[in-house]
Amino acid sequence: MKKVLIILSAVVVLFAASTITINYINAENIKTDNTSTLIKGSTKPVSSNQNYKFPEFYRGIYLTVTSANSMTKLKEFAERAKASNINTFVLDVQSSKFAKCIVPAENVQFCKDNGIHPIARIVIFPDGLKNWPVSEEYIKEKLDIAESACVNGFTEIQFDYIRFNDSNANKSLKIKQRYEFIENFISSARSRLKGYNVRIGADIFGRIPLWEDDIIGQKMESLDKVADIICPMAYPSHYTWSKKMMKDPYSTVLVTSQKAKARVKNAQIVSWIQAFKMKLYDIPYDKYINDQLRAAHDAGIKGYFLWNARQDYDVPLQVVRNFYAKNSALAKK
Hints:
Layout: H1 2-18, E1 24-25, E2 58-63, H2 65-69, H3 71-83, E3 88-92, H4 105-113, E4 117-123, E5 134-135, H5 136-151, E6 156-160, H6 175-193, E7 199-205, H7 220-224, E8 229-233, H8 243-247, H9 249-262, E9 268-274, H10 285-298, E10 303-307, H11 314-326, H12 328-331
Parallel strand pairs: 2-3, 2-10, 3-4, 4-6, 6-7, 7-8, 8-9, 9-10
Antiparallel strand pairs: 1-5
Helix pairs in contact: 5-6, 9-10, 10-11
């Protein structure tokens, strides 16, 4: 009789396992995760980061995961960055093959040892969220990457492409539901990472500070509830609805940054600025970058990040160096 009961129990367990399906989350049922502050299998103690000194004013550049993962490349960029008063690297940390940070702890520590604040950039929805609802497994993978970045020593996580697709996809979703979904995702991340005492940032379209509502689900007041840093992508070439904004890099970065700052109560604003040669409208490239640097400082925000997808920073870093040579007081911020 005992053998029969054991066999029946085993069958029940196997049946239950075979009927597990992926749950889905939406704006209503995404929940925060009070997960342990250690990743499964990790024996590394959590760093409290209590005494970590964040930049008073972010002066950053973006680097690909290839550079972030290579100590040789990282050393080269660190040397050039320090010579130009750059104090922050926004580093890609993920690979399509792994649901974890692939930038090793020693590379993260190298940045810190050289006075460079490392930020882990994690892309959430590469093309903007199209397929709704989203599986819990997908969300878990992104949070796993974020937590493993914290384990490797990152003290700031920056979520990029944390938005819906800029199209008519997901027509049934109301604007409010989109805002709630993004809010809840970041709240989930904050809960998951709370033991690490890290800052959490979110990249947004440059138009978001200028508009009240947007189909992509980003809203200043909504993100202000959950993010420490909000980063408008204030690339003048992308303001295609306004020729004036495309042709006036100083005004575009200034207005975008000021309006972003005016709409938040808690989060700091750090604007992405254009360090690539798209639609310069006959403005010399060095002046184009210099105008944006002035605007970031004049706007009274927390700093700026230079974006160049190819990491071609020869001209941008020279402009930054010259800018602070002429404005030495700003280099100390």
